[in-house]
Design brief:
With about 350 residues, this protein is of the alpha/beta class. It has eleven helices and ten strands. Helix 3 links the parallel strand 4 (about 80-90) and strand 5. The mean pLDDT is about 95. The structure holds 5'-O-[(R)-(carboxyoxy)(hydroxy)phosphoryl]adenosine and zinc ion. Its EC number is 2.3.1.234.
């Protein structure tokens, strides 16, 4: 039929994603299905993702997840015109399961295979929701594994890293602080919820790397985490009740302040008038609200995919695949392998 169907497969961390995107004859893209199976509950008692558990979970979830995506779209495997898969960055074993599965699908269906960059997927996914992106934009990726400011020239084009975290990722900071506060893993959602009841100015937690001699566009969250841990310890030692909501709100304000301040500054300096905010942490209510406020003041158009598309999924990988197909770049050889440390 008209339009070409791309199956996207994502297994870089703890989410097994299978998504289907149709590249229309006019070059636009349509999201047809987005199926995700998560092993997050199996990692919860360890307080972080355990690579071996993630790999096994991907292996078990792969076929049913692809099947669910096809069912959701009312399609069958023979309708698939190309397969796109996350080649990296991510966990080596986890990536390998996805890449192997994608090769098998591409070989069996005799269709092209595209190995894609996970980080670009987080940006490209917004096209499915808000239409084409301008030729150049700034992306702020904030997740459990990444905290990066990227200058993006076309989804299938160039990506330059403007800045990144020098220690913990933003999501990691949420997860570690949640652990200190004895809140469940992953820590982002419970802290976000608790923070609504608290005072963001109750405790003056440090804003990492905001001094005059610090790297302008890099981030640091480990000092913030340590400051929270110390504050909690001292309060406990003094025999006082922990004001969990105030701690959550003050911690969240420190993260939101630094992230949005640096992102807006980077966009302004690079002359970029569009910003895409994506990754699991983009779902945070305060970070997205403050980004909106500061972007609007600076005359920057902010684009935030809906939360379901901000977290890892297969549709974002299919979106990059469809872009590459649209630009008629060569597909990846079937011999491609997972690249855990794939650079941007
Ligand atoms: O993008 P993602 O699903 O996976 C990767 O890490 O690639 O991001 C997961 C991270 C976790 O650290 C989780 O705590 C965080 O996103 N997160 C949040 C929120 N929802 C999820 N952080 C802050 N606020 C939230 N509402
Ligand atoms: Zn991700």
């Amino acid at each position: 039929g008209p339009g070409r169907i791309v199956l996207g497969i994502e297994t870089s961390c703890d989410e097994t994603g299978a998504g289907l995107v149709r590249l229309e004859p006019d070059g636009s893209m349509r999201l047809l299905a987005d199926s995700v199976a998560s092993s997050v509950e199996q990692h919860a008692r360890f307080g972080g993702v355990v690579p071996e558990i993630a790999s096994r979970a991907h292996l078990e979830a792969m076929e049913p997840t692809v099947r669910r995506a096809l069912d959701e779209a009312g399609l069958s495997l023979s309708d698939v015109d190309a397969v796109a898969v996350t080649a990296g960055p991510g966990l080596a074993g986890a990536l390998m399961v996805g890449v192997s599965a994608a090769k098998a699908y591409a070989a069996a269906l005799n269709v092209p295979l595209y190995g894609v960059n996970h980080l670009l997927g987080h940006v490209a996914v917004d096209v499915l929701e808000h239409g084409p992106l301008p030729p150049r934009c700034l992306a702020m990726l904030v997740s459990g594994g990444h905290t990066q400011l990227l200058s993006v020239s076309g989804i299938a084009g160039e990506v330059t890293e403007i800045g990144s975290t020098i220690d913990d990722a933003a999501g990691e900071a949420y997860d570690k602080v949640a652990r200190i506060l004895e809140l469940p893993y992953p820590g982002g959602p419970p802290i976000d919820r608790m923070a609504r009841e608290g005072d963001p100015n109750a405790i003056a937690f440090p804003r990492g790397l905001t001094g005059p001699r610090d790297a302008k566009f890099d981030f640091s969250f480990s000092g913030l985490k340590t400051a929270v841990a110390r504050w909690v310890e001292q309060t406990r030692e003094a025999g006082m009740q922990l004001p969990i909501a105030d701690i959550a709100a003050s911690f969240q304000e420190a993260v939101a302040d630094v992230l949005t301040r640096k992102a807006v500054l980077a966009a302004a300096e690079l002359g970029l008038d569009t910003m895409v905010l994506s990754g699991g942490v983009a779902a945070n209510s305060r970070i997205s609200a403050l980004a909106k406020e500061r972007c609007s003041e600076a005359g920057i158009t902010l684009r935030v995919p809906r939360p379901r598309l901000c977290t890892d999924n297969g549709a974002m990988i299919a979106a990059v695949g469809a872009h590459v197909m649209a630009t008629e770049l060569d597909p990846s050889p079937l011999g491609i392998s997972a690249v855990p440390g794939l650079p941007v």
